[in-house]
Amino acid sequence: MKIGANLSVLDEVELIEQAIHHLRAIGVDLIIACDLGSSDGTYEIMERYRSDDDFWLFRLTLTEEDDQYDADWIRANIALAKSAGMDWVLFLDADEFWIPQEGSLKASPLLKEFDVLSVDRFNVPLGVNGPMMPSRLVPERYEELLVIAKPVEDPQAHLTRNPGDAWIRMWQDPKVMFRPERIISLEVGAHDAFAGDPRPLRRTRPSDLVIIHLPFTTQMRFARKVDNIRRALGDNADDDYDSPAWHWWRWVAMAQQGRINEEFEASRFSESVTADCRAEGTIRSVAELFRERSA
Fold first, then answer.
1. Dihedral (C-alpha) 79, 231, 243, 264: value to the nearest 10 degrees?
2. Confidence band of 39 (pLDDT split at 50, 70, 90)
3. Percent of the chain whose pLDDT exceeds 70
4. How far apart are the C-alpha atoms of 78 and 151, rounded to whole Å?
């Protein structure tokens, strides 16, 4: 069985090498890396990994026609993975780390039974000294890997009513892993997959696999991210929050008001707040999640 990963990257110099190493460690055979115009050294790092065997690197230029551009790009990359002989494919950003319970994606028996896995995604809370996670994302250290395990549902409505709350506490939509032979396209953001023929897709939500998301690591990285978002939105930066990535508009608005550091600091958990969240189950370890799911 061969597994491919389509890795989209924009200015992630702090995370890119860890992302590549982790994908290889969990059993990904081919990484198709798509740089979206990095200017912070990310692309140059990825060039060192370029290989005809297991690391294909492309550089793309974003346009303002986001929806059509994304749809064409997704279809092209699914076809590329299929032509490379991949049995399963996952789409991810550099700040998303797929965490298999046994340490390898290929260990899951579900890969033999289903066409699409809808994988739950959790934010990693930011502590006093950075994200609450170990340096190595391996099973023996999953007790140290903490996530927001009880996220707030309907985050857009919640933050409209409670603008002072931190986005990091909000629910994250799952992402899919799929058989490219059955799939013609994906929902933007890879939150769902669409069949290429009339046969129904065999779908499931795995209990032995989660995705951890690192939206916040350093103030510098977050500020760079918001600046990239502002440039990507262009003239649409003042639109209503009518988008799957509605929080982008929220962050751009906060940046324009000189308040973007408020979001970062609100996402930082003190030791006492972390202890309270652990006690009430809002923050849990990935090991605890897997134990609960197994039971």
1. 110
2. very high
3. 93
4. 31
Instruction: Share the mean pLDDT of the chain.
Output: 91
Q: What is the token pair recorded at 157? A: 């409505």
Tens of pLDDT, residue by residue over 84-97, are: 999 999 999 999 99
| Integer-rounded Cα radius of gyration of the chain | 19
For the chain, report the end-to-end CA distance as a whole number of angstroms: 28
Spell out the residues 6+ positions from residue 266 whose beta carbon is closer than 8 angstroms to its own. 164, 165, 166, 168
Which residues face 172 on adjacent strands? 121
What is the four-CA torsion angle of 194, 77, 178, 119, rounded to 10 degrees? Answer: -90
Task: Indicate the pLDDT class of residue 74, thresholds 50, 70 and 90.
Answer: confident
| pLDDT, average across residues 166-195 | 93
Which CATH number does the domain 3-294 belong to among 2.30.320, 2.60.40, 3.30.310, 3.90.550? 3.90.550
**What is the rounded distance in angstroms from the CA atom of residue 183 to the CA atom of residue 17?**
29
Residue whose C-alpha is closest to residue 43's, from 33, 28, 32, 29: 33
